Amino acid sequence: MNHFTILVSRYDPVNEAAPHEARYELSNDEDLNVLDALRRIRQAYDGTLAFRESCGTGKCGSCAVEVDGKPALACQRLMSPGSHRISPLRSFPVIRDLTVDVGPYESRLKEVHPYLAAACADRESGWQAGVVLRDLALCTSCLICEAGCPAHSVAPDRFEGPAIMAAIARWMADPRDRRDRVEDASRSGVDSCASCFRCSNTCSRGIDVFTSSVRFAREAELSKGYSGTATDRQMVQTFRESGKLFPVIEAPLSVKYGSSQANGATTGVFLGCMLDVRHQDWGERLLKVLGESGVPFVVPEGQVCCGGPLLWKGRVQEAREAAHKNLEVFKAAGVQRIVTACPGCKLAWSRGYPQLLSGEALGSLQVVDICEIVAAAKNAGCLGSKTVGYFPPCHTQGHDGQDSEPPEILLRTLREVGADYVQATLGECCGGMAASSDPQVARKLGSRVIERAVNAGLDVLVTTCPFCVENLSRSARALKAPLSVMNIMEIV
Amino acid sequence: MAVVRQVDVLVVGSGVAGLYAATRCAQQGLSVAVLDKGLAGRSSASYSAKGMAVFGPWSVKEDSEEQHVDDTLKSGRYVNDPRLVEAMVKGAAGAILGLESMGMLFDRNPDTGNLALHGKAAGHAWPRDIGFSDITGKLLVDTLLSQARMLGVSVLSDHLALDIALGAEGVKGCFVLDMDAGEVVAIEASVVVMATGGIGDLYPLTSNAVQNTGDGIAIAMRAGATVKDMEFVQFYPATVVYPPVLRGVNTNSIGLGAQLLNSAKERFMSRLEPEKLEQVTRDRLSQCIYLEIMEGRGTENGGVYLDATSIPREKYKAHFPSEWRLAEHAGLDLGKDVVEVAPAAHYYMGGIEIGPDGSTDVPGLLALGECASGVHGANRLANNSLTDVLSFGKIGGDSAAAVARRRSRGSIGAREVNEAEERIRRRLGGSAVAGAAIAGRMKQQVRDVMGQCVGVVRDARGLATGERLMNELSRSASEVTVSGGMRCNPELLRALEVQNMTLVAAAIIKGASLRKESRGSQYRTDFPGEDAAWRRNIRIRYMRDSGEIVADAGTATPPVGGKEV
Fold first, then answer.
1. Residue B521, SS3?
2. DSSP collapsed to 3 states, B291-330
3. Is the Cβ of A489 closer than 8 Å to some Cβ of chain B?
4. Cβ of B436 under 8 Å from any chain A Cβ?
């Protein structure tokens, strides 16, 4: 028999000044479904415990709550034995206990005219609903994505959030609609989304919310002649000229060490713009540790930007060109495995390329992160007496929206050098992917992480994503935080 | 302080029938409010319906409205009201016209541009199933809800209808518990439309939402409306009981060749139905599974195993994409994992008696959709539930608008509101020491009695036990007091629901006991055959003064509309 301690947020806003937590004990043979747990608490302890429920099978989207700080449908979430905290969806007014008032969301929704705006009668031309429309038609407005959206939570005035975006895109994707939905999307802050994929990974109906709403709307913006911020334009211009997102000052490492001959190596290194041109010291380290680990590898020459940041900003054509080029180069080199040190690049390859090219584009090609193959970190001595934490990059999230655990190599190394590892919840999303389109959102997200890291007493914050390192370092400097942000590449 | 609001038309329930009626009234310039005790739209049965049977320009040339009527009557074992069946069948194509200009999506045949036929469901002579993917009901609700809001309909979530306010000339409005504010409100209206859906939550396992407690039927009964066909509860044969994350999900894989196994992993249908195996009618399948479980060969979770592993994943996914996604999201691979299923209360054929315009025998009260009776007789034909709610949503909406223009709005006095509020307040003050859910437990007791005594398989003894137990529960339900206050108190909500449930349950038991035959969804082991003398409807009324329910079993009628099969 397994034991569960459930801490439930109880609150009667009419008679109480603030919520309090009530503690309930339950037993069950196996993992416990959150909705079942709430029903059992109500039955055994207190019949007045308020929470929403309806179909109980994940179809209606009524029972969204937060489980251990993560928004989820109660009926769809299992809890493992131990202690768990159940609280109402954040950012909505509480009516009682776990029941929230969705009225404020409905008012915001009304602003984007969530209904067919057309004077036409039934259209019988045999049109078929496209992929985006089919995907978004599943949305139940359960608001899990809304509650879990990092950009919306720090800057609701700049980004209306994924649920509103999905509502806009649903009509944008409808060929019968005559309203200027692009304008709605722009006004609702579609450019301020930080492309963290949390909405897609947590959607209770499995909708790829980011792709079908934000990315789709960004594509539509561009097709209507919108050209993005100056930084965005610069980025695309640079890509057009050099195949990279950042200006090339020194020769890219992929040119310096590049080869078209694999000489029997089955591992190909994909450097990505960050390591190839912007932080070549990290790139050098990547190649060095790979060499030291005895893995025969090749740096296929001619590789370009992975295309991820372009794709997520709606620049599908450029992203597809990049995907084509990279795949051609790596296939020509005859490698079977691609190693990268950037979670964004890995995500572009594994999730973006099948969308951009075809489901089978990658064939048997595997994409792995350097942390998965390096055995030991040799330069971690500097962390010896430090208090160290790990920041999980969004692009390493699991498909269920769970943040990644620190790489085994990091934990082992910290133990070896005697550093003090602190497990802390640092906030989701550093904001890095919004830096070029909405610096304000990027700054707010970055500051939130840094503030929490400082409060957790960290001296060093380690992460595996070069974009996170950049944005978090920027925030740490701006806040004059007594903390340094490190890329794991600096210690391996 | 008495709160009184006014509308022309008050709709109770926000499924397709209620929302369609609301939009029709609003389009005609009337002020309309729609109530839902949960979140508007989401708690309706319509939300999970997959497709609908409609005869129209997309139909095969051999098909006709008459054939659809015949199929519906046959499935209903000829106790349907043929006027209602005709109204449904003939109104359906017209009811879906115009939905697309509200934003509804339909799968279309790319060659003809016509709506695509999804296939031929059991009991239909020809393919008539149209819709969008397997989320037709959800999209209808979304579409109509957005349209209602656009038209300025006041859509009120968390509002529980309590009782009709009655005057000498019929309906004056409705007393409503605003659960967010914790106060009783009187809404004066020229017309009240009941569209509260089914009663699945009267049973221990149901595919319906928890909100489906038969409130509208009970409220109409207390207002003096006649109800009929109360004994006819349709069970879905294979609804998930385990794992808990999918409990209540109707599985569809049997149609694709999935097999049923008992606790000894025996394919028991090869013993019970050696020829057709699992491919028997839904009713027969429900009976077989139910008996297998009752005879002790079920799983420990009270079901049987459903093994769909022989179906190619791609085929399953293509036929039932959202079912597949749901399972996938719950961490199950239906190509590999076996779930446990049992028959679940799925659809209710009984309910408030209506005429072809949705009117009841209480002036100013209309009833539409699943809470009304007569359309589906003793058993509903597959895919006819959305057809019903669309046709009657439109018909009923138009007739509600006409009645609203003709009838003057009632006036509810402050004293009446205070009395209604007092009736709720009397429910409060229960001991919090007992703490645990008193009303919640009673609700469970009602469900257990219904499952054991008035379930898939019935007999006189079980029904007599059911009647006795339900009487006791009904008495406790009328006396129970709960802890907590008026505002957002699930115990109070349950106490009020249980009162409605026991009234509806009593009428179901009454009808099931009186009907000494098996017909459609009613299967009695003591009267296993269909009896022509019982081709009639049992009507039931609630006597307000005595609190008794009185049944009238009527007389047998010759079959109407087509040859009896």
1. coil
2. HHHHHHHCCCCCCEEEECCCCCHHHHHHHCHHHHHHHHHC
3. no
4. yes
Tokens of B104: 């509804």
CA pair distance B126, B117, nearest whole angstrom: 10
Residue range A270-282, pLDDT digits in tens: 999 999 999 999 9
In this structure, what token pair is assigned to residue B395?
């018909």
Residues of A in contact with B249 (CB under 8 A): 57
Reduced 3-state DSSP string for B245-275: HHCCCECCHHHHCCEEECCCCCCCHHHHCCC
Is residue A376 predicted with pLDDT exceeding 90?
Answer: no
| Torsion angle of the four alpha carbons A423, A428, A433, A439, in this order, in degrees rounded to the nearest 10 | -110
Spatial contact of B438 and B489, defined as CB atoms under 8 Å apart: no
Cα separation, A380 vs A488, whole angstroms: 9
Greater pLDDT, A141 or B322 = A141
Query: Which residues, in sequence order, are CB contacts of B542 under 8 Å at separation 6+?
Result: B221, B222, B224, B503, B507, B548, B549, B550
d(CA A222, CA A215): 11
In 3-state terms, what secondary structure has residue A43?
helix
SS3 B229: coil
DSSP B46: G
Q: What is the pLDDT of residues B207-231, one digit of tens each?
A: 999 999 999 999 999 999 999 999 9
CB contact under 8 A, B42 and A76: no
- Please enumerate in sequence order all residues whose Cβ is within 8 A of that of B521, keeping only pairs 6 or more positions apart, or say none: B232, B233, B234, B235, B283, B349, B378, B379
Cα(B38)–Cα(B82) distance, integer angstroms: 34
Tokens of A264: 């029997």
Helix (H) or strand (E) holding A10: strand A2-10
Closest chain B C-alpha to A45 CA, distance in angstroms: 5
> pTM for the whole thing?
0.94
Chain A residues 99-128 within an 8 A CB cutoff of chain B: 99, 101-102, 110, 113-116, 118, 120-128
Dmax (CA) for chain A in angstroms is 75
Q: Are A244 and A305 in contact (CB under 8 A)?
A: yes
CB atoms closer than 10 angstroms to residue A411: 15
Q: What is the ipTM of this complex?
A: 0.94
Q: What is the pLDDT of residues B404-416, one digit of tens each?
A: 999 999 899 999 9
Q: Is the per-residue pLDDT at A375 higher than 90? A: no
pLDDT in tens, B249-302: 899 899 899 999 999 999 999 999 999 999 988 888 999 999 999 999 999 999
Band of pLDDT at residue A30, cut at 50, 70 and 90:
confident
Q: CA of B253 to nearest chain A CA: how many angstroms apart?
A: 17
List CB contacts (< 8 A) between A122 and chain B: 97-98, 100-101
Residues 188-227 of A with CB under 8 A from B: 204-206
